[in-house]
Amino acid sequence: MTLASDDKVLILLRHAKAEQVPGKPDHDRELTARGRRDAHAAGAWLREHELGAELVLCSTAARTRQTWAAAEAGGACGETVEYDRALYSGGEPAALQLVRESAGPAQVVLVVGHNPTIAMLASELSDGDGSTQAHECLAAGFPTSSVAVLRYSGSWGDLGYGTAVLERCHVCRG
Predict the structure, then answer these.
(1) Where are the alpha helices (DSSP H) in 9-153?
(2) Are the beta carbons of 90 and 113 closer than 8 angstroms?
(3) Per residue in 122-169, pLDDT tens?
(4) pTM (2 d.p.)
(5) Quick one: DSSP state of residue 9?
(6) Is the peptide bond before 116 cis (omega within 30 degrees of 0)?
(7) CATH code at 51?
(8) In the chain, fewer beta carbons within 10 Å around the N or the C end?
(9) In a domain, 22, yes or no
């Protein structure tokens, strides 16, 4: 993907399907077999669309770490990967702040996280323009292994509500 010098791309990936085990701490829930296949498909989709990230910000939860590992196995790439608990427990404001503070000079940043945070972030950042199909995909509920791709012009520190264009949304299934 060719970007102008001030263009940025933010990729938001919801973790893949996770197990439901009574009594197991939520943070420790792992991917199901379907989740591993879907996360692998997400990596293939990212590779196919040439969406390689310079920085990956990933929740510390087991299912998000496993989602990123399976996506990498499917062809996704990230030059630097940082794990941050704020993506697990901080909600949408914390996720936005993390991107603002961590993205630095990167042009492409990928966030692996949880709903409702990831879907809310995609919706709130979007200025309403962009792909009608992408907006319909986002409005349909943003299930596990969904990817939203937003384009933004400016400094990451200035990223805010209504400042990005939702270009793509895809539900990855393997």
Answers:
(1) 33-48, 62-73, 86-89, 91-102, 117-125, 132-139
(2) no
(3) 999 998 889 999 999 999 999 999 999 999 999 999 999 999 999 999
(4) 0.96
(5) E
(6) yes
(7) 3.40.50.1240
(8) N
(9) no
